[in-house]
Amino acid sequence: MKYLILGKKDWIREVGEYLREAGNLVIGMGEGNPGKGVDFFFREDMVSSPHIENLLREVDRVMLIFPQGKWQIGEKLFSCPSLKNKGVILIVSYRVYGKPPVLPATEDTVPSPQEDRGWEEYFLEASLKFFAQMNGYNPVILRCGEVFGPGIPGIIGEWIEKNMKGEEISLPEGKHVIDLVYIQDFWEGLNRVLTRLSQVKNEVFNLSSGRGVEMREVLKKIFALTGKESPITFSPFPHPEVILSPLKMRILFNWSSRYDWRRGLELTVDEIKRG
């Protein structure tokens, strides 16, 4: 299987390595070369080139991963006629939901983003659905909890890095809950979707633990595992409090998260300590 994957360099590398280990050929497209994570690499301005149509004809599937700041690139990609009959996967975060009136949020919950990243992802979802209908291809959207693990960019990795350096860490004011997904659960969920991609069309799935944990508790666990305590500041930054329901993934793919967030943190910190 030939994949074209777009996104931030770190995610292209991580997903690319995972797909290549499964025997797939991976073409990356982004702002920086992810190295061993891909077989071939193009700058993301390739999307605006007439050559993009020829490239798309050579691949089987296209994946856009956590496209923060890349909504224009994503829209151009989704509008390409050569995506016809291809499998297209868009992976976004829980931020697309904003602050749902009822938790856990299901795939039928109407998104109401409250920050730029959420609006970008919501716009890309709408663009994908529109162009898929116009150009005749089958999209699948994965809305994920906060994915974390060794080498994975995000809030948890940032906290661990700052803690180990003794740097200040910012927390939202008040009680705040987050839905954590350890990277091995993410890989397993993604694999089950990709394995049956031809059987699921125009679908949205929540890939999440379905459980919430207070962010302060997560930070306390990090401090306990590293043996260090960083100074903490509290700020009103717009971090939506969202727990996602993974019921649809459980029913259709027999998938549910196996790693408790505490065990995931233990494995993450241990791997980082070992370098």
Mean pLDDT across all amino acids: 93
End-to-end CA span: 33 Å
N-to-C SSE series? EHEEHEHEHEEHEEEHEEHEHH
Q: How much of the residues is beta strand, in percent?
A: 15-25%
Alpha-carbon Rg, integer: 19 Å
Using the coordinates shown, work out and report the CATH topology of the largest domain.
Rossmann fold
The number of distinct structural domains comes to 2
Strand order of the largest sheet: 3-2-1-4-5-6-11
Q: Classify the secondary structure makeup into a structural class.
A: alpha/beta
| The named CATH superfamily of the largest domain | NAD(P)-binding Rossmann-like Domain
Specify the biggest β-sheet: 7 strands, parallel
Uncertain runs with pLDDT below 50, 5 residues or more?
none
Name of the top-level CATH class of the largest domain: Alpha Beta
Number of helices: 9
Per the principal axes of the C-alpha atoms, what is the gross shape?
globular
List the helices and strands and how they pair.
Blueprint: E1 2-7, H1 9-21, E2 25-30, E3 40-43, H2 52-57, E4 61-65, H3 71-78, E5 87-93, H4 116-135, E6 138-144, E7 146-148, H5 155-165, E8 169-172, E9 177-178, E10 180-182, H6 183-195, E11 203-207, E12 213-214, H7 215-226, E13 232-235, H8 247-253, H9 261-273
Parallel strand pairs: 1-2, 1-4, 2-3, 4-5, 5-6, 6-11, 7-10, 8-13
Antiparallel strand pairs: 9-12
Helix pairs in contact: 3-4, 5-7, 7-9
